[in-house]
Amino acid sequence: MTAVSTRRSGATALSRTTGHIAIALVGLLMFYPLLWMLSSSFKPVSEIFGPGSGALIPGSPSLDNYSEGWTGPGLPFTRYLINSLIVCTLTVLGNVLSCSLAAFAFARMQFLGRKAFFAAMLATVMLPQHVTLISQYAIFRDLGWLDTYLPLVVPKFLATEAFFVFLMVQFIRGIPRELDEAARIDGCSWWGIYRKIVLPLLSPALVTTAIFSFIWAYNDFLAPLIYISSPEKLTVPLALRTFLDSSGQSAWGQLFAMSIVTLIPVVAAFVIFQRRIVEGVSTTGLK
């Protein structure tokens, strides 16, 4: 009996070790492009695309790509980072405030057409962004908002992100209604229930909304490309595009170096708030 148990234990350990090795190899394969970009940011152009370009260890490592890339597009790269952080901050504020208010209304308040409005809101999740692109551009052009950040941030204050509204609705539905009734007996209005009862308990979903809003706004390329034209107003994704020249010589080394720099805020946000992301997704029922 002991020998059989020992053999089973050995087979289980061998199977587990094999699985871990396979997962590590797949992970390394998926991580290779990022490692190659990091390595190439320290190489001269001749080494990036020359013989042995796939090697991860630079032959003659240098920080020239970082120093030249920082002023490469014509303005200090700090300017583009600040522009992106302005857009991201306003986007996070808009989504957190407007989506939480809309979710509270759908989850707690009774009004005519509530289910129909909620279904229509969910339907917009399946609506491709490109379908409304031309009409939105015409509206913002008539309002005189082109070449400003208003088309990027104002819609966020109108609860247009249906995914976040749905996420918060799911969370609010899990909060006991008895808390609302107790607050109402104490004289709280709808606004008081939202501000004093629901909003503090909604913090996991709010953090999840804030993090995903930041990442999506920071990585957004299409919307800034359409609405922003002044070089001093470019966001980070558009600034990276300026290193590429279809008619001349592209600055690949500088592009890779600044790409690594732009990854730092997103990776830092994910590492710092990783536990809150998992907590928010799990408590809102999104799997």
TrEMBL record:
It is found in: Cell membrane. The keyword Protein biosynthesis does not apply. Residues 81-273 form the ABC transmembrane type-1 domain. The keyword Membrane applies. Keywords: Cell membrane, Membrane, Transmembrane, Transmembrane helix, Transport. InterPro entries: MetI-like, MetI-like_sf. GO terms for cellular component: plasma membrane. GO terms for biological process: transmembrane transport. It holds the Pfam family BPD_transp_1. Belongs to the binding-protein-dependent transport system permease family. This is Carbohydrate ABC transporter permease. It comes from Ruania alkalisoli.
